[in-house]
Each structure stands twice: as structure tokens, then as C-alpha cells.
Amino acid sequence: MAVAIEHQSQTVDTSPKGIQVSPGLRASGPVVVLLGLGFLAPLLTVAAYAFATPKSFDAFRSFTLANFAVIFDPANTVWTSFAWSIAYAVATVVLLAIIAYPIAYGLHRLFGKWAGFVSVLFVFPLFVSENVRLYGWVLFFIKNGVLDGALKALGFSGGPELLYTPGAILFGMLYVYLPFMLFPMTLGIAMVPKDLIDAARDLGAGRFMIWREVELPLAMPGILIGMLLTFVLGAGAIAESKILGGQSVITIAQDIEVAFTYAQNWPLGSALALILVVIVSGLALTVLSKLDLDRILGRR
Amino acid sequence: MTLAVTSSAIAAEPLASAVPQAKPVLQLVGVRKVFGEFAAVDGVNVDFKEGEFVSIVGPSGSGKTTLLRMLAGMEGPSEGYITLRGNLINDVPADKRPTCLVFQSLALFPHKTVGENIEFPLKVRKMPPAERKARALELMRMVRLPESYYGKNVMRCSGGEKQRVALARAFAYDPDVLFFDEPLSALDYKLKKALEKELKDLHRVSGKTFVYITHSLEEAMVMSDRVGVMSRGKLVQIGTPEEIYTKPANRFVAEFFGEVNSFEVRRGADGWKAADGKALVVSGLPEGVSDAATVIVRPETMRFVPTGAAVDNAIQGTIYNEYSLGSRMQYQVHAGERIYLVEAPRGGAVSAGDAVTIGWDAADAIVVGD
Amino acid sequence: MTLAVTSSAIAAEPLASAVPQAKPVLQLVGVRKVFGEFAAVDGVNVDFKEGEFVSIVGPSGSGKTTLLRMLAGMEGPSEGYITLRGNLINDVPADKRPTCLVFQSLALFPHKTVGENIEFPLKVRKMPPAERKARALELMRMVRLPESYYGKNVMRCSGGEKQRVALARAFAYDPDVLFFDEPLSALDYKLKKALEKELKDLHRVSGKTFVYITHSLEEAMVMSDRVGVMSRGKLVQIGTPEEIYTKPANRFVAEFFGEVNSFEVRRGADGWKAADGKALVVSGLPEGVSDAATVIVRPETMRFVPTGAAVDNAIQGTIYNEYSLGSRMQYQVHAGERIYLVEAPRGGAVSAGDAVTIGWDAADAIVVGD
Amino acid sequence: AGREKELNILCWEGYNSAQVLDPFRSSKGATVKAESLTNDPTMINRLRAGETRIWDLINVNNPWARKVMAPAGLIKPLPKAEFEPYFDTMLPQFKSPYRWAMSDDGKDLLGMAQRFGPYSFVVNTDKVSRATAEEQGWALFADPALAGKYGILESDDWNVFGIFMVAGINPFKEHTDAEMKLFSETAEKVFKGAKMVGDIASLNQALVSGEIDLHLTGGTYSVSPARADGYLNLRAVTPLKGPIDGKGGISWIEITSTVNNPDLSPLATEFLKYVQQPEVAHTVAFAEGTFNPVSQMGNKKCFDLFTKDELEAIQWDSLEEEMARSAEYDIVPDYEKALDLMTAAKRLRG
Amino acid sequence: METRAQIRTRFAIRVWTAFVLLLVYLPILCGALAGLTKGRYFVFPVKVFSGEWWEKTLSSLEIQTLVHNSLLIAVIVTLVSVLFAFFGALAFARYEWKGRKLYQKIILLPIFFPQPVLGLALLLWFNALGINPSWMTAVIAHLVWIVPVVTLVIAIQVYGFDPTLEEAARDLGASRWFILREVTLPILWPGIWSGALFAFLLSWGNFPLSLYTAGVDSTIPKWLYSKMVAGYTPMVPALGTMSTLSAAALLLGGGLIGMLLRRRRAEA
Ligand SMILES: Nc1ncnc2c1ncn2[C@@H]1O[C@H](COP(=O)(O)OP(=O)(O)OP(=O)(O)O)[C@@H](O)[C@H]1O
Ligand SMILES: Nc1ncnc2c1ncn2[C@@H]1O[C@H](COP(=O)(O)OP(=O)(O)OP(=O)(O)O)[C@@H](O)[C@H]1O
Ligand SMILES: NCCCCNCCCN
Ligand SMILES: [Mg+2]
Ligand SMILES: [Mg+2]
């Protein structure tokens, strides 16, 4: 009988044989191939440049740590650019989380049939390049601009001097990256079943407790991904400083740009870029692993 | 005490009209809940007394869950008034009510372990972690969950395990009034029995008020001080189990507690008569019943009449079918155009195909109005 | 036929050991399912025969759902073999098996209406919309859902309504083998009865194989050809309802079907003796039972013995407590150190505090091995 | 092969405008694509990264062709015989052999000259008079009284020159450590005192709005659109004297070269000839965006096309003397070091 | 169930949302004003209005080409990235498989990378491989950066997806494709829609990658950037206003048509 069954089982081809590709591996296929072809090569190139002779174009033909030596030279002040960029990124993440959360919450729970319209209102302006939108703020804040001009027309002495300051840069970053926090967050909050909030309230939990114990953890995928995106974008920001900030702060992205352009020092630019990637990914992944989504959501 | 339930919403002076003798903990007056066009709860008036154990039964979709959700504060009534110890609480949110609901859908926190779920209400009231854990373990023992489940992902639990976590979580909260929405439906017989006992003990010891939805009539009968029966959004009867069983308010209630034998009857000059003209003996004349009524005889009061024995009402028939109900058997007896149900202990002398006389005593007949 | 179930996983020559007489539709050999360290299903061997209606019962967490998920192809066994009509299907995915599972968690499609949920399997096989709708309405009638629910958002349905949608969806699929995981647990008594009948009819007419998890012992007894009892991942007994009830394989099975009176006994020179030395009369000497055993007497075979009447085994005691079970009463009788349970019809002559003699006949005693 | 009908131009703003390209497109029946970039090094990057196979013409400022692109093999020489004659009709200073159009050894013609201009700084003459500005020159940016009132154009190569000039040092020579130290200190001071660093649009807007009164780095190229808009109070200024052999300003000349494209379009040279025509040269000078003098103004036929307003926009009245006071943009031998110091100085702003 | 505190919170959230929306539109309004003034430079209150810049923008062939290029790239990037990212998100958040942890990390790397550097490095490779940069290479460059972002966005919703629904569908005989169409896609739809929006916007507005990889096919952001730096005219803000208005018309119009269709279907 054992023999018979084994024999029969070979005649049935319902049982998949051969190499079993797990559904996860299969689903990841297109992305992995894309990144393998489209990202691995540039990554290698940049790495090769980072270790090439300074100010040369000798990638893959020279190897030196000179670029890193320059960057880590105590006399070099480029670390301040890193520090500014990371600080801005962190501030952007924190402030945007606070700014966007009530809106995301409202979109999901309060605005009812208006929610779709309100969220689409946040979308329209995004079809305008961020440079142009930032320049709109210049027109608003500048002397004899909309704010100053309007105040003067109303008989006041004019608007406050906000433009071309580090604060203006932060403001610009909050403005430009708001959607990158808002939309993921809204998706995340939409994932919290109403039942659970009811249950928590019924068990005596107040607003804050419900928020901390139920809504926040269950909306975490959205919030974390929103934070991740805004952090990464904030760390690479440059236009805000150039347009609104009058370069009152030099961000690391600008240093990298200068290295590639005015300085024609690709190896230095590559080394800076690699260090930025290491810092950003180090920070992001550390935080992400502390807040492991799989664990938070009870997947594992 | 069977409460006369009026189903119309009371419009003006709502609270003055229903002054209860014993102060009720919860009072519903003309409560309605409408979803779109449809009234899921349609004019319910009822008092729940302090320390009472009330079961609510009723067909699927009759509005039981909706009623409980309104009592717990998850949903506001579309019409009517809910008062807690005399205070109107229509708009008081769930966290401000001394009540707790064990959800039919359980509503467990999927991102928390079994222990964390149970400890949630304790965390809310800032009990120190060690104490919390001790209490959680105690409650887990009570619902028969092994201690090793404390750290288990609650989504990995079996259906019955989840249900017990939900129960333990509500016990942890320990409010004055507990609402249960089919809390034992996913449990096996033994466990159900054990937890029924725990619930009953808890109720007795704590003096809390329990409102309990169940589909198990046995549960409703064994555990409750009163049983309420819902139908199409209305509370059609509420009374002690005995009352509900022996004096159902109408045919719906009578039939709801199990398959019954029923006869349309009319009162003639010579007493009650069945539709087919056969005279029936029923005990007394119930009040408030018109000349047309329905006589109900439960399968367990219907019995096989040994040849020659006396019985108030007798019918000749043939056993058509028999089923085992565990410790008892149910027989379908064919007589005339109809099939009658007779329930008798296992091991009786009759079996399918036998010609038998069945009958019932006048005292066992139930007369209802529709 | 009670199958002797060995609970150890069979390592070598797995299939040779269990040659069934009638060709089984599904055969499990040494099936285990391990989650982490824990074996949720632990070496199950069983055949399901073509056209059979098998109920699976067992305590919460005993592995019933896990077993069904493996049979349906949702989960692969960690060990052992599952064959379908002789073909190994361990790795055959759910959509390639002629089986369908009604989930304990229902798994309704939240974005679809009641109608769309039911029509899902029909849409899969490209039935034209008009035909689909007709079939869906027919099934809705069968599960007693009003026609107006066809377009209703399924998430807005009550617990019992949802359960019926899940059932109708599986019927729409109409596979050779149907698995049900507590499909009627959220329904009221009447509806449950009606759907039990529908299920039974469907089973009879279609000749399909049904495997049915339930916590309702009555359901298991009334509906099934065979009942399997699970405990801690093992299938401890499978047999006809009658067998399971009257010849439980062990004390666990006996007790699972309701509270029982049990006596540890030893066979001495003068027959069976209870632990307290009292001689007991039990019918015959069961095979395969060692000299130490347990005698089980069910509350419904335990009876009040009228003074002077003859009975094989008698105990003197006092009625300590009585409960209503609906049509019957349960009495707790205090005797010596112990409490015995007696179940009797309502309206008996005894009541709490009475001194009574209880007893049972030798033929009603069940002797089990542990 | 098969590129007879297509031409790709990598250029500064202006050559990519419809006014310039459309007539060429229709006359040749060709597909012409032009991309304008906003700094020389980025364009060079594109070629270095391999885009020599795409572009036919590249238009950058003077020293890049001769000192960077030609040695790196990114461009190829023009047929001398065909193109040298054009230089003769240009303004006098472009007479052949024109230094920036030739290879270092003087053998090859590397490109054609067209737009040019002085590029030192821009003032609002309502706030700082032209005379004061010319007189004081670069020292304005070291004047504590003007701190917070000036901007700096974001153009780091050019700013390096500017800072050297403010420090009173000739940028286009090797520098001593002391000079570099002075450069660094000057950079710190100048950047610290700047209200803003920004692009041309921002700086012109800031000048018009009154946010700033003057800005470092800039000239006719940057201020002409504002002047054309009627803000004649805004003016590019070339100091009377300065550290480059006495010259007070710096000027630029764009050179357009043929890319070392293995499959160079025959239209490349056609286009170079096309833009020499008086009408086209005028259009180039006044293509949308920025307005500049062109070397072809040496040809009367071309010059006559300029209206009075146009001449005013490009400060024609003083162009000759300002060019005379300017040294031509060149490579700074220790540019990288200076740039590093300046970048460090910029960081101190934050 | 509404307490006074809740009503207050609701009100506060409404006001806050309205305030943020006002800020979102403020620079857009300033740009709209600038695009309608006569001069190049902006002074408020505006003295002379003019439609000149709108006219020029609308009649510019160059801008038509740029819009065409930008749209072409953005549409293709949106379609491809949503397709890739949908499966990518399933691998990220739905399936349990061996390489998952690692995959979850590598997928983040491209977005950690400074975009101009990525663009330049890609350009080096395209040229090394003999591929002429064009809008097609820009599509690839955009995908490298955008697919990971969209994967994350869609993954959010996948985290909330109940896998037993797929199991149930499978058990009812549905094929992989059928399940995808009838169960997975509709339930993940909000996430996919958000992902598509992200993809489109990130591509439509991308400057640093396009700068290096679009070859001769220029795009709107490249044009705007060069205009801003050298050669600013109010065509820049005019084009911005037009983009906002077209987006509004498209999205609102689309939404309206969708609503009408749904209503009609509901009636039928
Ligand atoms: N994914 C899982 N991970 C870990 N343990 C699990 C998992 N699924 C089930 N279990 C455990 O396996 C055991 C059997 O679960 P199963 O759901 O089969 O029980 P059941 O017999 O259906 O119980 P119930 O009657 O309560 O539904 C339980 O103890 C449960 O906690
Ligand atoms: N949110 C809702 N929208 C529309 N109808 C609803 C909603 N909630 C419940 N209903 C309907 O109201 C009726 C009562 O529902 P409810 O859940 O109270 O029933 P129930 O008595 O608890 O039933 P069950 O025993 O099946 O759980 C049902 O017909 C249900 O379909
Ligand atoms: N960013 C402008 C700095 C250089 C000035 N040159 C203007 C050149 C136009 N070819
Ligand atoms: Mg319910
Ligand atoms: Mg189960």
C-alpha cells in the first residue's frame, strides 16, 4: 500500500515539484532585479570614486584613503554640514509628526465624506516643483512682498524679517516634506480598527492612553514610514537653504554638490556621499530596529 | 415579575413616567437605534437592577449586540434615554461609564501579548507592573489559560483561547456593570460549564450587575435572575427563567426556547377546541387572552401514554423518526396531517415505526395570545 | 467501528500500517503540526470515508482548527502524510484541493457585499452574473438571510449573520469535501436547529464528505456518522456517537461529554471494589482493562431509587443543590466525602435537603482504563 | 551616422530659446534640442560622464575650453579656415587669433566667441551711488556699515575671484600662505556680513524689494533683466582700479565649441555660422531671460538692430570702459585650496 | 458618543487642518499673483496686472515639449513602480521568507543615497554600457529611487492586511491572479493609490536625477531650475499656477466622473 501510494503520488502533478520559490522571494523579484541592475552599479562606481586619487577621474584605477583622510582631518569643518543636515532632518521629522498627526487623524475619523476632498486639496500644489513653491514663500516674506506689502498697506510698519535665516530653512523643509509625512500617516491611522479604540475606551482608557497603547502602535507602519521618508529627504535637503535660507546654513548636500561641480573633485564628493549614506542608514536602521514593525504588529 | 414592555418611544417627560421601586442601576426608556432606514433596536424599555444577572436572548440580528453597545457607550441611541443610577448617560462616553463590554468580536489588541491584553485596564489605572502581572496570572487561572500563555502573541491563540483572554481582560477592569456578548460561544462543553460557574460565583461574590447575551438557553436558564427575549429590535419579554419558560408572553417566546407542539385553538361553549374540532383540556383560563389563542405543549411535557393510562389530552400516532440528544431521545410522531415532537429519556421501550399514544396534562399546556 | 488510534508519529513505512477497508477520501498518517516548540497537532492517524459526516470535538486549544487548516491546505503538516483519494497532498495548495473550509474566523471579504461574498466562488468559475445572483439568493434563503441583505455591506452584519454568509459562501463553492469550523456557534437555538437540518439534508443529498468541528455535543451526536475527540493535539477516540457515548476510550472522553460520576476501582477476588472498599457491580469484564480502572456513571443513568426498589449499586445521600437545565433538573447529592450528580426530568418529587438513595444498574456503568 | 537632421546643444541660458532655434529648425528641417545649465562645471561633468556621444555643441565660459575641455579631449577643433574670418567682423578685442578661442599652443581654433560682459558686482545706485561704488570698489564688501545689506550670488568659482579682489589680491596667480590666510579671513568676513546667498532671480528680486542694496558677483548678465524691466537704478559696477595689474573688474566671454562626438552632427558647424548672422546675434543677445552684449556688435548691421532701451539694459554706455577695466576670467592656479577655504568660511554663517 | 472635550478636539483639528491648508496654498497664491503681474519682479500690492506671461507660457513650443517629456516619464514611472512596488510591498510586509530582513534593509539604500550623486553615477554607467541617455534612461533612474519609496508606502497597508482572506479565497478555488484582482488589490487599493500618487509626484517633480539622466530630453523641473538660476521670468510661477489648476481639474474631474459612474452603477 505504501508503495502504491508513493507510486500514485508521482502520477499526480498537483504536487509542485522542483525548485520551490517562496512567494516572498518571488514577489521581491522585480524590485531586487531593478535595484541589482540600477543601483548596485552606481553604488560601486561611487565607492570606487570615493577611494580614487583626490581631484582625479581615476575611479577603479587608483586606491587611496586620502579623501576620507581629508574629511576626517580635524581642521576640516565639513562635519558641521553633516551636523546641520542631520539636525534639520531630525527637527523636520519631529515637527512634521506633530503637525501632520492631527490632520491625518481628522482625515480618517472626523472629516467624514469631506475627507477625500480635503486630502486631495493637499495634493494639488504638489504638482508644482518644490523650487517654485519655495520661491512663492520668498514672494510672501520678502520686503514689499505679500506679507510686508499688505501690512504696510494696512498702515503697519511692515513684516518681520524671517527670510534668509536658519529658521526659514526649517520652515521650508516642513513645508516641502509635509506630504511625505501626512499621507503615510493617514494610511497608517486608517489601519487602526475602530473596534479596538472602542474596547480600549470601554476599559477605562482616556484619550492619551488609547493613543499611546492602541492607536500609535497600530498606526506605526504608516508613521514610521512617514518619518523615514521625511528624515531621508530632510538629510538630503538643499533647495530650502538655497532659496528660503539665503544659504545661511550650508547643508551636506550642498557640500557634495560643490565637490562635484565647482571643485570638480568627484572622489571627495563620492566619499562625502558614502559617509552620508552610512550616517543616514545607520541612524534610520537603528531606530527602525528598535521599533521593529514586525514586532510591533505582532507578526513575529 | 414580568414587565409589561411597551415598544413605542416615550416622547415627553420621559424620566418621570417610569419611577422604579427598587433603584435600578441602568434604565432604558424608549431606546431606539437606527442604521439608515433600519431600526436595529426599536423602542426598548427596561430596568436592570443593582446586582442582577440578566441574560438577553433572541434570534440572530434581533439587536442584542446593538443594545449592549449602547449600554456600554460605544454607540449613542437614535432616540430614547439611558440612565445610570438615575443620571442620563446618553452622551457619556464608554470610558466614563462604570461598565465594560466583552465584545462579540472580542476586540483583542493584536499587538499585545495575552498578558498585556489582560493587563490593559490595570495599566490604565496605573497599577505597578508586578502587581499587574500577578493579577493577570490569577485571571488567566480563572479562565483556565495556562501560565505559559502570559507572553504568547494573542493572535496565535485558538478561537476559544482568544475568547477567554477577552473575558479575563474585562474581569481585570472590574467595573460595576459587566456586559457579555456571547462570551462562551467558542468554548467546549466542559470549559463552558467551568466558566459559567466562575461567572456565577464572581457575580454572587461581587454583587455586580451582569448583562449577558447568549444563544445557549441552558446558560440563560441556569445563570440568570432574569431572561430578556429580543425579537426584531424589541424586547418582547423579560422575566425569571421559570416565567419565560412556563409563561411565555407569546408564541415567539415559547418557540424560541425549543421546538414545541402548538395548536391553534378557539374557546367554544364546551371549552377550548383545536382547529380540527377536537376538544382540548387546558388548565384554567389565562387572563388577557382572547377567545382565539395558541396552546403550546413542549416536547418534554408531551409523553408516551401507556395503554389505558389516564391523560388529559391524547393523540394516536406512529413513531416516524427518532434522534439522540445525548442523554435523551427525540421522537417525531406522525398523527393525522401533523408531526408531534416527544422527548423522552434514552432507553425507552419505543422505536421508529411503533404505533403509540401521546398526550399531555392540562397543567402542562401553555396558552399564549397569538 | 472504533478505530484504535495510536498517537505516536509513525516513522517508517507509514502508510502500510493503516490499510482501510473502504477507500477513504482523506487519510492522515502520523500528522503533526509544530508551532515553535509546541505541537498543536501531534501525530494524528485517521481516515475519512467518502460521503461521511465526521464531527470533531475537543477542548479549546486541542488542535481542531489546526487539523482542519492542514486538511484544507492552508498549512502544511510538519510531519506525516495527508492523502486525498490515495494521492499525497501534503504540498498541494488549497485551490488545488476539492475541499473548502468555513473558517472559525469567517474570513469574509470586508470590501464585498453579502451577495458578492457568496458569489465569490461562482465568479471564480465564471458563472454568468444573473445565474450567480440567482444562486446566491437561493443560498441566502437556505441560511435564512433575507433577500434584502444581498447588497448589504458584510461588515455591517451581526455576528450570526456573518456566520451564515460564510456558510453560504462555502456552499456556493460546492466542493467534494467540506470542512466546518464551529459554523453555527453564533446562532440562536432555532436557527441552529434549522441550519443543522439544512446541513444534514445537504449532506445526505449530495453525498459529500463533511468534517465538522463543534462544541455542541448535541450537534455532534445528532448530525454525525462518526465523532472524533481531540485532546492536546491527539485524536483520542473516533467512533459512532453511540460508541463514543457508551464506550468512551478513556476517562477524558467520558468526562468530555458532560459531568460524570466516576469511581477509581480495583478488581479484587470478590469483584470490583471502589477505592473506599465498597463492592461495585459492573457488567462484564471489559477487555484490555487492567485490574485498576475507573467506573463512570453518567448523571442521567444515575437515578433516584425509590425506597425498597432493587438496584445494582446504591448510595445514600442528601440533596445538596438543584439546577434547572431547561426541560430537566440536575441534582447534586452529597454522600460521604463526595458529591454525585443525578439528572432527572423536571417536576420530580425530590428537592434540596431531602435524604435520598441514588444508584445505577450494572449495565449502565462504563469502565475505562485510566 | 544619420545625424544630418539633428543637433544637440548644451549651453547657458539663451541659446535654448525658441527665438534663436526655431528659424534654424525650419530652415534645416532639423530636430534641435538644447539644454541650458547654470554652471560650467556641471556641463563639463556631463561630458566627462560620457555624454560626448550626445552633444554636438557646448557653450561655456572662456578658460574651460582651452584649459580643461581641450586637454581632456572633450571637444574638437573647428575648421580654422572657415571660422577665422568671422572674428574680423567682431568687436575689436576679439580680433583673430583670439586667445580664448585658441588652444594653448595657438594651433587649433577651439570655439567661437559671442556673448560677453563685465562681472564684478551690482549696486542699487539709489543707495550706493555709481561713483562711490566705482571709487570704493570691492572694499564696499568689507565696509562694516554695509554688513547685512548685501547679498552674494551663488556662483562659487566666481566668488573665489570676488573674495580675492575684496582682499586686494590678484586671483589669477599663485598665492603665498599669507595671501591665502588673508583670503580666508576676508571670506569669513564677507560671508558673515552677507544678508543672503542666492541665485540671480532671488538677488534681483531682493534688490528690487529693498532687502539688499548691492551684491557681490554679478554684472550685465545678471542685472540686465531688471534694468530691462525699468529698474535702471540697479547697475553692474566695475571698480576703477584693483589688484589685477591695476584692473578693477573681471569679465567673461562665452566660447561655443564642437563636442568631441564620434558621430558629430554636420549641423554643429552650420549652427555656429548661423549665430554669427547679425539678426541671429541680436536675438542671442536678447533671448528670453538675460540680456548681454555680443561680439558681433562690432558689425554695424548687427549693432543697428539694438534699440535704445536694449542698449540701456546692457549698459552699453559704459561697456567699453568697463571691459577695459576688467581682466578676463581665467583659471586660478590654487583654486581648489581657495574654494575649500571659502566653503569653510561659508559654513561659519550658520 | 461625543463629549464636550471631543467636540473641542474636533473643532481644534478642523481649525488646524484649515490653517495648514492655508499655508499650503499661500505660496501658490503668491506665485499666481507673480505670474499675473506685468513686470518680472514682484512688488505687492501689484500695480499692473498682465496676462503676458500666461500667454507666453501657453504658446511656448518648448514648454509643450517639456510637459510632454515630463508626463511621459512620470506616467511610465508611475505604472512600472506601482507594479514593482506592489509585489515588493508584499515581500516587505506580507510574506515570511528567508531573505526578508535583508531585503527590508537593502530596499532602503537607494533612498538614503543623495540623488544628484546617484544620477551622475547612473549616467556614467549608461555611457559605459553604450546607452544614450534619453527620457528612457531617466525612467530607469527615477525607478531606482522611486520604487523603494512606493514600496514603503504600499507596505503600510499590507501590514494591515489579513492573510486569512487570501487563504479563504484560495480555498474557494480562486487562482493567484483572481485573488489578486478580487481580494488583495481592492483591499490594498488605498495604499496603491497613495503609492501611485507618490510615484507620479516624485517623478514629475524630480530634478537631480533627470538633470543627469534625461540626456537631451529636458523636463519641466530642469527648465524651471535653470530659469530660476539664470533667466527668471514670471513664466516660472505662471507654469506653477497652471500645474496646480490642471491637477485640480484632472483630479476633481476624475473624482467626479468616478462618483457619477459609481452612482449609476449603484442605481443599475
Ligand atoms: N500560529 C500559531 N502559533 C503558535 N501557536 C498556535 C498557532 N496557531 C495555533 N496555535 C496553538 O495551537 C493550539 C491549537 O490551536 P487550534 O486553533 O487548532 O485549537 P482549537 O482546537 O481549534 O481550539 P478552539 O476550540 O479554541 O478554537 C492552541 O494551543 C494554540 O494556542
Ligand atoms: N453598522 C450597521 N449598519 C447597518 N446595519 C447594522 C449595523 N450594525 C448592525 N446592523 C444590523 O442591525 C441588526 C441588529 O444587529 P445586532 O448586531 O445587534 O444583532 P444581534 O442580535 O447581536 O445578532 P447576532 O446574534 O447575530 O450577533 C442586524 O440586522 C444587523 O444587520
Ligand atoms: N552663475 C553665473 C556666474 C558666471 C557668470 N557667467 C555668466 C555667463 C553666461 N555665460
Ligand atoms: Mg450580536
Ligand atoms: Mg479553533
Order of helices and strands of chain B: EEEHEEEHHHEHEHEEHHEEEEEEEEEE
Number of strands of chain B: 20
Rg value of chain B: 24 Å
Number of domains of chain B: 2
DSSP strand tally of chain D: 11
Secondary-structure element order of chain D, as H and E? EHEHEHEHEHEHHEHEHEEHHHHHEH
The percent of residues in helical segments of chain B reads 10-25%
Name every ligand kind in the structure.
adenosine-5'-triphosphate, spermidine, magnesium ion
* C-alpha end-to-end distance of chain B: 21 Å
Q: What spatial form of chain D do the alpha-carbon principal axes imply?
A: globular
Structural class of chain D: alpha/beta
Number of helices of chain D: 15
Report on the biggest sheet of chain B.
Answer: 6 strands, mixed
Helix content of chain D: 25-40%
Name the chain pair whose interface involves the most residues. A-E, 91 and 103 residues
Regarding quaternary structure, how should these chains be classified?
Answer: heteropentamer
The biggest sheet of chain D amounts to:
11 strands, mixed
Strands side by side in the biggest sheet of chain B: 6-7-8-3-9-10
Tell me, rounded to a whole number, the average pLDDT of chain D: 94
Shape annotation of chain B: globular
Tell me the CATH architecture of the largest domain in chain B. 3-Layer(aba) Sandwich
Transmembrane segments (chain A): 31-52, 82-103, 168-193, 214-239, 271-291
Family (chain A): Belongs to the binding-protein-dependent transport system permease family. CysTW subfamily.
Subcellular location (chain A): Cell membrane
Keywords (chain A): Cell membrane, Membrane, Transmembrane, Transmembrane helix, Transport
